[in-house]
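notes to self, project folder thing:

trying the whole complex as one job this time. last attempt i did each chain seperately and stitching them together was a nightmare. two parts in total, labels are on each line so i dont mix them up again. if this works i'll redo the older ones the same way
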Amino acid sequence: MTGSIAIIGYGLACIGPGIGIGLIFAALLNGIARQPEAAGLLRPQAIFGFAVAEALAILGFVLFFLAR
Amino acid sequence: MSFTAALALAPSFATEDGGSFEPPAPAEFYQPVGTLLGVEITRSMVLALVAFVILAVWLLSTTRKAAVVPSKAQWMTEQIYDFVRNGISRDMIGSKDFMRFTPLLFALFVFILLSNLFGSLPLANFPIMSRIGFPMALVLIVYVIYHAVGIQKHGLGGYFKSMVPPGLPKAMVPMIFILELSTFFLVRPLTLCLRLFGNMFAGHMLMGVFILGSTYMMLSGSIGLMAASVGGWVMTFLMQLLEFLIQAIQAYVFTMLAASYFGGAVADEH
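result (full assembly):
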């Protein structure tokens, strides 16, 4: 069996952003459930947070290709 | 990306029957189609030109005879413009300065959206932004503009001063300043560029893996693998739906982040 250990490393690195993005949308759903009329206000902020959390996974993705 | 389109339009993705499974490699995103005046033309460049022509024709034809009671096409254009103007630009920049930036943001949004959708549309079947030069060029525009408007607003010294929020303890100021400086000059353009590139590149490659893997299993000749390929095709379909969602969200996120950088640069003192 051959391959690059970097693949496993990238998989592990995705756990963090994955949990982070989950928390962000969980908080968004919580917020909308508590105050449905605030949904329009909350959603851009949530996607903003999602983009920032996702950047970490993307950086890992690039480093994965650098490490190959 | 349908199966026949994948085989017909991305010949480098096709498998050889009987051989072992070869997953798509990053090198397959480099697809030169010829040279023009000594400059190599790639598939991305041709598609970017096509996207430009489509957008120009669409926008000109729907806004040329703009009427108070809009036609269906004009109504659709207005809805998309309204989404960018009110949903992104005004929300992020504030109602004072947003009209200066709205045309740029609208152009960015429709161009990125169409070029991302090209990754899944038959005939095009290649996301323009999966070649890093294209997101780089877009980010360069955003990068220059948000620094320029920030310096225009605050003055050169005031711009650097505005990076540090007021009211910090004296000892914290140098540390926060260095952190903010790297955010403004390195992290923002880097993440903005890599996010768009990484998503389009990884998404297209993932679709390649799913389609090639399913095709390979389907043509393998062994009953077990052929049965498993049904699950593979179902997953391919579901991943394709997710891919459409990601393509739209990435266009939205890019435009929104650009708007928030502009908004931060023109904001008054905290």
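what i see at first glance: DSSP finds eight helices and two strands in chain B.
need to look closer tmrw
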